[in-house]
Design a protein that fits this description.
Number of domains: 1
CATH topology: Nucleotidyltransferase, domain 5
CATH class: Alpha Beta
Low-confidence stretches: none
CATH superfamily: Ribonuclease H-like superfamily/Ribonuclease H
Radius of gyration: 18 Å
Number of helices: 7
Shape: elongated
Largest sheet: 5 strands, mixed
């Protein structure tokens, strides 16, 4: 028997909570660019199959599901925290902040929030943190897809501004090509200057 991806949503529904949001982030590991979170409220009649952890999906499948989620979701919120704020605080705080922003950008606001990971969010809404939730909850899986595609699209756009770094290919992750580009060109304005591999590197801007 496969995983019941509606398990956590149905548990909340049984106690009278009907607007249930899944929230997830993309971009904790890269050396450049923002961390992006999405919050998604799906209808219980959501007709699309195949939603799961975005990392398990091909880019083509992610794009297809991204479009389907936008077509059928009751609400979608996005939260973006840039590299400057990541450097000012740290990546965990920036990730949680982006999640809070995503939830607060939902309209209507949810009654209950399912969060990917082990950390609760600093607000009074009913919530549940679920480790590996992007593969266990359809709402969190949908949020992971929206966050990933949104962030990847931003990095493709940044590639136009800083083509030497190859952001369109690796999306800011620490690939050998990316690390070599940092050594060659220094760091760009969107690099996370507090991260190992970037910290202490000069910049040409």
């Amino acid at each position: 028997m496969g995983i019941d991806l509606w398990r956590y949503e149905n548990q909340a529904r049984q106690v009278g909570l009907t607007r249930i949001a899944g929230v997830d982030e993309a971009g904790r590991g890269p050396l450049a660019g923002p961390v992006v979170s999405a919050a998604v409220i799906l209808p219980f009649s959501f007709p699309v199959s195949g939603v799961t952890d975005s990392k398990k999906l091909s880019p083509k499948k992610r794009q297809f599901l991204y479009q389907q989620i936008y077509e059928h979701a009751d609400a979608i919120g996005i939260g973006i925290v840039d590299s400057g704020e990541i450097d000012r605080t740290n990546i965990l705080k920036a990730s949680l902040l982006s999640m809070v922003m995503a939830v607060k950008n939902l309209s209507p606001l949810p009654e209950h929030v399912l969060i990917d990971g082990i950390f609760r969010l600093p607000f009074s809404l009913s919530q549940q943190a679920i480790p590996k939730g992007d593969a266990l909850s359809i709402s969190i899986g949908a949020a992971s897809i929206i966050a990933k595609v949104t962030r990847d699209s931003l990095m493709v756009r940044y590639h136009e501004d800083y083509p030497d770094f190859g952001f369109a290919i690796h999306k800011g992750y620490p690939t050998p090509f990316h690390k070599e580009a940092i050594r060659t060109y220094g760091c760009s304005p969107i690099h996370r200057k507090s991260f190992k591999g970037v910290k202490g590197v000069g910049k040409l801007w």
